[in-house]
Amino acid sequence: MKILEIFLSSLLLMILSGCAAKINSIKSLDSKSKTISIISRETVSWKNEIVAVNTCSALSSFKSTKDIKKDLLNNARTIAVEAVEIELSSAFSNEQTCKASSINGESCDSFVLSRVKTFSKAMLKKSSYKFTMHENDLICIAHSSSYESSSFDLNTIPNVAVTTKKIFDTSITNTSILVELSFQEFKLGDLDKAIFYLNRAAELGNSNAQANLGVFYFEGIAGLEKNYDKGLFWLRKAIAQNNAHAQWALGHKYYHGISVQKDVDTSIEWFTKASKQGHNVAQGMLGLIYSTKGSYYDIGKAIYWLGKSAENGNSNSQMKLSLIYSNIIEVKNLNKAKYWAMKAANNGNLIAMKQLGFMYLKGIGTSKDNVKAFYWLEFAAQKDEVYSQRQIAKMYKNGQGVEASKSKSIYWYTKAALLSDTYSQAYLGVLYTYGNDNTKEDKWKAVHWLQKAALKNDKVSEYLLGTFYYHSLGGLSQDFTKAFELFKKSAEQGYREAQYNLGLMYSRGEGVEKSEEKANHWYGLAGLQQHPGADYLLGKKLLQSSIKENQYKGLIAIRRSADNGNEDAQYLTGFSFCVGSGWSKNLKLCKHYLNMAKDNGVNVENFWNKYELWKY
């Protein structure tokens, strides 16, 4: 038995067992003439119409012949589908159950039940649907042909598509069905069919179709070219029927100045009209306008409209409320901030997930909880929220709220770096530059990440990349000019290592004209940040000055360098205190600084014995 014959015979059996409708006639598929006929019935109760739609929709989920076992096709038994009580008063859920006899060990649940549930829910959400059975038949064929590639072998029945399209063009006048068909075709990716149904519904006066068509023309989406005149035409048509979505859309155009002159007052007017009809995006826009500092700022109105939108499930408004309660002093309420962040996060809002994770991490509006912080940050990270990826990389690195894992830390830093997070790119650049116990040094990888971060003016990456050019590392040719340029960019952002190296290059005339004055300038800036090498070199130069004030500054710089760990400065400062050169003779301080130098590998034995420092 061919699959279409199974389709039609099974459809008959299902409707006989689940519907109270009288079936007048069934015209089966004529494989020779290769045409499809319509199953005609008398109009029946609304409940049974839904059953009919569900049944044919369920059957349209059959896969190709290859996907169904041959023994199932050859030995098909009676399939019984019973439609149980449908609570039409709720107009929301359909507790329809599929009961089937076992067919070679197979249950009908696998190919019927899921389709029944999903489609019937979509139908019942719109309580205005009251179809005639003839229209239901068209729905059945529409869904069957929508799955042409998987349901039927069109090579054997080439006229199916033509036949069904002709029926669609001439027969469907119920705009709710047209809108539903348009929606289904959008999901299947057939934009031509989707727009055809949407346009037909709009022409027949469906305000939702008109509003959506207007938006599509304005935005130039869904396969339509931008056409502001057509967009405005359809929005005005929908607005004439008091369509809230169209009112919001027109407000959106005035707010952003799309095809019309920007006019916030007019946008507020249209947003308000839509908001009063419960349009939660319009409500959110009013909240945004009133919460923005400026001539429209009114935090009371902002909270009112954001609250309406948030209560209607808008996660962006929920998140905005959380931020307001977190940051606006006059209404600050961390409990409410956490409440709305939790609402938004549970609705899938990435920013809310990050915010909630941050609140648990820092103990804002709640007690600190690293485990919960990790839970929410990981959710956001898995959806490519970059800050969250970087944060859980740190948490894996430090074992914060999760078991420490260097490999997972690097994985998440890499994920964030691939999404252009500068901090993560720089981190990986530094990691591969020096390596550690868990990661091998890899100058080639280091160059890859440092170049990316340096392009975004990361001062550490600029400095390290400069050292790579200076020393010819990571496959880079030695280039003092490039090294100088990178050191200078980093130094001008206050990075002391770059300032020190820039001083060295000016002092040596590498990549730039030699200048002791400029070298001292950069040594001085690095020294102010307690760079021991810069202080030592600057101090030595100042000691050579004939001006006593400069000599004293030199002593201060060298002693500061010693205190910051420079072994040469420690040795020189110890010597100065031993012999009373520059500093008054002080053998205790002499011993102190020479001990520091000794700990850093400097041989101080001569001074130790000569001045009997063991006594002090």
Offer a few descriptive terms.
65% helix; single chain; 32 helices; 616 residues; two-stranded antiparallel ribbon; mainly alpha; 2 strands
SSE topology sketch:
Elements: H1 3-18, E1 23-25, E2 40-41, H2 46-59, H3 70-74, H4 109-124, H5 133-146, H6 148-151, H7 160-171, H8 175-188, H9 191-203, H10 207-219, H11 228-239, H12 244-256, H13 264-276, H14 280-291, H15 299-311, H16 315-327, H17 334-346, H18 350-362, H19 370-382, H20 386-398, H21 406-418, H22 422-434, H23 443-454, H24 459-471, H25 480-492, H26 496-508, H27 516-528, H28 532-543, H29 548-563, H30 567-579, H31 587-599, H32 605-610
Antiparallel strand pairs: 1-2
Rg, Cα atoms, Å: 38 Å
Mean pLDDT: 76
Please state the structural category: mainly alpha
Q: Count helical runs.
A: 32
Number of strands: 2
**Which stretches are low in confidence, meaning pLDDT under 50 for 5 or more residues running?**
1-170
Describe this structure in words.
With 616 residues, the protein is mainly alpha-helical. Among the domains are: 1-172, no CATH class; 530-615. Helix content is 65%, strand content 1%. It is built from 32 helices and 2 strands. The protein has helices at 3-18, 46-59, 70-74, 109-124, 133-146, 148-151, 160-171, 175-188, 191-203, 207-219, 228-239, 244-256, 264-276, 280-291, 299-311, 315-327, 334-346, 350-362, 370-382, 386-398, 406-418, 422-434, 443-454, 459-471, 480-492, 496-508, 516-528, 532-543, 548-563, 567-579, 587-599, 605-610, and strands at residues 23-25, 40-41. The chain has a two-stranded antiparallel sheet with strand order 1-2. Helix 19 packs across helix 20 (386-398) and helix 29 packs across helix 30. The chain is elongated, with a radius of gyration of 38 Å. The termini are far apart. The model is unreliable at 1-170 (pLDDT under 50).
